[in-house]
Amino acid sequence: MIARMRSRTKTRIIADEKKSFRQKDNGGGNESESDHDCPEIPNIPWVERPKEWTYTMRRNMQEVVPGVFLGPYSAASRSKLQSLLDHGITHIVCVRHAIEANLIKPNFPNSFKYLVLEIADTITENIIQHFKKVKAFIDEALNLGGRVLIHGNAGISRSAALVLAYVMETYELSQIHAYSMVQQRRFCINPNEGFMIQLREYEPIYQAEKTLRNEQQSSEVQRSKRTIHQIEMDNRSQDKVENTINS
């Protein structure tokens, strides 16, 4: 009886995912044909999205933006070394709860650089504290010409939230636009309610930090201009003094 119920539930999930994905792909969910066609979303590097979503695809990793992959732990399991190498993966973010440490762990510490984060998939977990660390790790990998896989257990909640935060800040997207874009590549993402709240809270935070950085850079440029101007004025004054002495 239980087995039949589980089978029916899984069948319903598969059918619902396929139906919903096709609706989005055909514009049923007010989604444009590509991210570039939406005037509200900034132009970002294009990664081809799946033509169709099937239930088994959640067991694989998908490239969300160039060089950044999101997937489940099974994508980084011991049997997947060649797949990781074929995809050019050089860095891996491994997300797990402390009680999962014996099951979810770095399998190839000699082949890839790992960032291991202890995060519970609960609505009260403080995941926002990890956003900056993950972004720095991803940026480091990409700047070195590498590629990154971010995975948790299922690649649906914790790891998805980290990728969403990265996409939001890197491409200056709202939480809504980032979610839409990432979901087009990995349709099964579903961060828990607490993570979604923190992602919404993170939007004005990263925007304020960007504004502050821009103001600081502008101030530094102005100081640099004044310094150059002062040097030019000093040189002119020195030239006048020398000309006066020589005359």
From TrEMBL:
Gene Ontology CC entries for this record: cytoplasm; nucleoplasm
GO biological process: negative regulation of SCF-dependent proteasomal ubiquitin-dependent catabolic process; regulation of ERK1 and ERK2 cascade
Basic and acidic residues bias: start-end ranges: 13-25
Signal peptide segment: none
UniProt feature, compositional bias: Basic residues: 1-11
Molecular function (Gene Ontology), one example: F-box domain binding
PROSITE patterns, A to Z: TYR_PHOSPHATASE_2 (PS50056), TYR_PHOSPHATASE_DUAL (PS50054)
Domain Tyrosine-protein phosphatase: residue ranges: 60-208
Pfam families per UniProt: DSPc (PF00782)
Residues annotated as domain Tyrosine specific protein phosphatases: 128-186
Region (Disordered): 1-42
UniProt record similarity statement: Belongs to the protein-tyrosine phosphatase family. Non-receptor class subfamily.
Designated name of the protein: Serine/threonine/tyrosine-interacting protein
Taxonomic source organism: Acromyrmex echinatior (Panamanian leafcutter ant)
